[in-house]
C-alpha cells in the first residue's frame, strides 16, 4: 500500500457508539493489605469502546463488591448514565442493582447463572429455539 494511502486510512475518523457501554466489575488488589489485614479492592466502571476506566470506588474484600455497585455509578451525572448500557457479571444479578439502574434510566445486561436458581430455571424454560 502506498504511504499516502496508508496515512489516509490511519487518520480516518473513528465512529463512536451513540450510547456508552460500561462494564462494571470489582477486583481485589493482590498483594495489598490494609492495617486490619484485609485485602484492599476497587470497584470500577470501564468503557467498552476503549477500556478507559471512568470511575473507581475503593472497596474492602471481594464480598463488598455488591455493596459498592451503586457507589461508582453515583459519581456519574444522570445525563451520563441515562441510556447507557451497564454490563456486569453474575454477582450483580440482583433485583436491587437492576432497580437502581432502571431508576437512573440506564440499561443493563447481567449474566444469569445457577447462583440465581429460580431466575435461571425460569429463563431456561423459555422457548429460546423459537426466537429468531
Shape: globular
Integer-rounded radius of gyration: 19 Å
Structure classification: alpha/beta
Estimate the mean pLDDT confidence. Answer: 81
**Strand runs, count:** 5
The count of helical stretches stands at 6
The biggest beta sheet is recorded as: 5 strands, mixed
The rounded distance between the terminal residues' Cα atoms is 42 Å
Unreliable segments (pLDDT under 50, ≥5 consecutive)?
Answer: 6-17
Biggest sheet, strands in spatial order? 3-2-1-4-5
**Which sequence of SSEs, written as H and E, runs from N to C?**
HEEEHHHEHEH
Percentage of residues assigned to helices: 25-40%
3D structure, described in words:
The structure is a single chain. Strands 3-2-1-4-5 form a five-stranded mixed β-sheet. The protein has helices spanning 3-10, 65-68, 71-74, 78-81, 95-103, 117-124; strands at 21-28, 41-47, 53-59, 85-88, 107-110. The longest helix is centred in the C-terminal third of the chain and has 9 residues, at 95-103. A hairpin with a 5-residue loop joins strand 2 and strand 3. The chain is α/β, with parallel strands linked by helices and 132 residues long. It contains six helices and five strands.
How would the blueprint of this fold be written?
Layout: H1 3-10, E1 21-28, E2 41-47, E3 53-59, H2 65-68, H3 71-74, H4 78-81, E4 85-88, H5 95-103, E5 107-110, H6 117-124
Parallel strand pairs: 1-4, 4-5
Antiparallel strand pairs: 1-2, 2-3
